[in-house]
TrEMBL record:
The lineage of its organism: Bacteria, Bacillati, Actinomycetota, Actinomycetes, Propionibacteriales. Residues 1-161 form the N-acetyltransferase domain. Keywords: Acyltransferase, Transferase. InterPro entries: Acyl_CoA_acyltransferase, Bact_Acetyltransf, GNAT_dom. This is Acetyltransferase (GNAT) family protein. PROSITE patterns: GNAT. It comes from the Bacteria.
Length: 332
């Protein structure tokens, strides 16, 4: 077996990487949301000025049998790195995952990263016993956090969405809720970036502390460009103060030709909580997605298991838990 850097602009290599990623992440999770090749390669090739991605392939002769990606943050949390490893199901238990993990952890250390993180999706009943947990723990990783993955079946009844919006409006007077599709206004971008940067600090992260993320209008534009390259649409619904500052936001990415939507962040500024703004923006965003993409039948989200406020909103809307996303950490 040979480990080699991957040329992300080589279409043949990327098709093999996508095949492995798709097959590997579906094992034991049949029915989980899937990314098309176009979505996968657009995400891999789209730049993010806030992080560096290092792509590695494991090869048996000339056949790719595993892929690994190391993400190193460049603008904040620069002592940390995050990695992903996926092995072709036909080549599991042959040392491929171990070789990729060791290589990426060593690379992180060589680059001065002292905290290395990853996650894995595990059935609730196997959180303490799953083989992926044992794999990581035998290599010095410990559990850092648990998030719960939830699905929401669409469509939702119009009356239900109106009821949630009306309930939110009882306390959200004075804020204006607006939705932007496929772009975000330049005059609001700086304010949105300030809010997005706080998410890493205020959201539950278990045993790992994060400093505020440096989110810039440039990175926001890069994110929107990536989504467009994937063939997806971004729905950003925000609550605005009278002086046009973003007080709350929620983001949905929608497969234009598929049936899945993916929930990114939902966050309320710490100075504007207690006004049901989280429910207000989520209800409006879901209404807009349904109106524009009636073919979408599922939304996927995940939240920290101790994030009671967001869990309450998600359960009120109808999200149901499907699996655990267990995060692990190794410190130098």
């Amino acid at each position: 077996m040979d480990l080699r850097p991957l040329d992300i602009h080589d279409d043949d290599l990327m098709r093999e990487a996508h095949r492995i990623d798709d097959a590997g992440t579906q094992v034991g999770r049949e029915g989980a949301p899937r990314w098309t090749y176009d979505e996968y390669v657009a995400a891999v090739r789209s730049p993010d000025s806030g992080e560096r991605a290092i792509h590695v392939g494991a090869f048996d002769d000339d056949r790719m049998v595993g892929v690994g990606i190391l993400y190193e943050f460049l603008l904040d949390n620069t002592e940390k790195a995050w990695f992903e490893v996926v092995v072709d199901p036909e080549h599991r238990r042959k040392g491929v995952g171990s070789a990729l993990l060791d290589h990426l952890v060593a690379q992180a250390g060589a680059d001065g990263r002292t905290t290395v993180l990853t996650d894995t999706k595990i059935p609730f009943a196997e959180v303490d016993t799953h083989h992926q947990r044992r794999f990581l723990e035998t290599r010095g990783f410990t559990q850092a956090n648990i998030e719960v993955v939830r699905h929401l079946d669409l469509p939702l009844a119009d009356d239900a969405i109106r009821k949630w919006a009306d309930h939110a409006a009882e306390k959200s007077g004075g804020y204006r809720v607006e939705t932007f599709v496929g772009h975000f206004p330049d005059e609001l971008a700086e304010s949105l970036c300030v809010l997005l940067g706080q998410l890493a600090v205020d959201a539950p992260t278990g045993t790992v502390d994060f400093e505020e993320e440096v989110m810039t209008p440039e990175r926001l534009a890069e994110r929107y460009a990536m989504t467009a390259a994937q063939g997806r649409e971004t729905f950003e619904t925000v609550a605005l103060t009278p002086d046009n500052q973003v007080a709350a936001q929620t983001t949905l990415q929608v497969q234009a030709d598929g049936t899945d939507a993916f929930q990114w962040g939902t966050f309320v500024h710490r100075e504007h909580r207690g006004h049901r703004l989280g429910l207000a923006v989520k209800a409006v965003n879901l209404r807009e997605v349904q109106a524009r993409h009636p073919h979408v039948t599922r939304v996927t989200t995940q939240n920290g298991e101790t994030n009671g406020y967001m869990i309450d909103i998600n359960e009120q809307i109808g999200f149901r838990p499907v699996e655990a996303s267990v995060e692990f950490v190794k410190r130098a």
